[in-house]
Amino acid sequence: MHLTPAEAHELIRNDPSLRLIDVRPPSEYQTIHVQGAELLPFTQLDPQAVAAQVEADQRVVVFCRKGVRAQQAAEKLEAAGCRNVAVVAGGMEAWEQAGLPVVRGAATMSLERQVRIGAGSLVVLGILLGWLVHPALYLLAAFVGAGLVFAGVTDTCGMAMVLARMPWNQARTGREKVSTGQTPSGAHT
After folding, report:
1. pTM recorded for the entire structure
2. For 95, how many CA atoms within 13 A lie in the half-sphere containing its CB?
3. Taking the chain, what is the end-to-end CA distance rounded to the nearest angstrom?
4. Rounded to whole angstroms, how far apart are CA atoms 147 and 138?
């Protein structure tokens, strides 16, 4: 089941037993999240443990950045026995665009952007090393390209999984502030 951000916001306001799960990496969660959302990164999600904690008719709403990981997490939760699972369509990006309240922390670089930088750097390095050192080193660029194709076909990314575990992508304590989603001029923040 998919909910618009507005529908999810209403559920959160009206159902105190609702369990709100954010499956993004800790660094993305720290930057911006919905108040009351529980961080359970997709790479560490244990659907059986969550299902064991959820009451029979308790609603579970799952977030991610755009909705893809949340959909995968919801399918895993349903397979583990959760009966009433919904995904926020468009994820955190749609929630923020709708001007709904968020908790903001220190800004960090998104995991998606880190993957692009890492993959691009490895391709350039492989080409340079192949040209300057030995032609066999062109295989580095080919390997990264094959990894990107695999990531696109399977919707899983090994580089993202590795980067998500790096120290700079772990949640840090710090000052956070609740935002209504609107700036004084009425524009979205």
Report:
1. 0.64
2. 28
3. 28
4. 15
**Token reading at 135:** 């032609």
Residue 143: CB atoms within 10 A of its CB come to 13
- The DSSP symbol for 135 reads G
C-alpha span between 44 and 46 (Å, rounded): 6
What is the C-alpha to C-alpha distance for residues 180 and 189, in angstroms, rounded to an integer?
9
More confident of the two residues 107 and 24: 24
Residue 86: band (very low, low, confident or very high) from pLDDT cuts 50, 70, 90: very high
pLDDT in the model for residue 133: 95
Residue 100: alpha-carbon gap to chain centroid: 18
Residues facing residue 177 across a β-bridge: 104
Tell how strand 60-63 and strand 102-104 pair up.
unpaired
Q: Phi/psi of residue 62, each to 5°? A: -115, 135
Q: If residue 54 lies in a helix (H) or strand (E), which one and from where to where?
A: none
Nearest to 38 by CA among 79, 83, 77: 77
Write down the catalytic residue from 34, 51, 61, 64: 64
Known active-site residue 64: yes
HSE, CB side, 13 Å, CA atoms: give it for residue 189.
16
Which residue type occupies 54? Answer: V
Contact 22/29 with Cβ under 8 angstroms? yes
